[in-house]
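RN223 protein: structure tokens wanted.
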Amino acid sequence: MADHQPPIPECSVCLSPYDNAFKAPLKLPPCAHTFCLECLAQLCLFMKPMQLLPCPLCRAPVTIPPGGAPALPVDTNVISELPTHQRSHICRVWMEGSELCHWRLQPPYNRQPMAEDGTRDAVVRIQLIHPTSSLSQPADLITVRGGRRRHQCREICRSFWCLTSLVFVTMVTLFSAIFFPIYLIRWTR
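Answer:
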């Protein structure tokens, strides 16, 4: 009979197994749902400074700490379910613009050439958004229409002068439709 190994836990957004670097399991404080660092960093990438991130599962509002998604707490329960070689050391990950970065420590017996400062360590980076130049043609883009007109109408209606003009046009229309015909009837008699 083969040994039954428990499945490696995975992120419920990207369905990738957790690890101890870019796919580190992070727990969202209010609801305790867990997602990988890379998915949360992509969700936080275009957020405004005081904007709350909705949890991808339950939509509970989450305050992202200074430092972005890498500053969220690691889920130690999920870490305990990882293979032993991944449990020992969780990499310190940080964001630089739209990139996630971490130090990859090279073992001393590695045959890679040393850097100028005498170390074999390296910074590993992944790009969270891909440049648009990778698209083969503009036809690859999906165009969504209609939302802009609704947004413009909302913005115009919030203007004081627009509301004043709208009330004036409504009054003129009512006068023309109701009172002017009555005036004409009396005039012809």
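The chain has two domains: 25-128, 156-188. The two ends are 108 Å apart (CA to CA).

Cheers.
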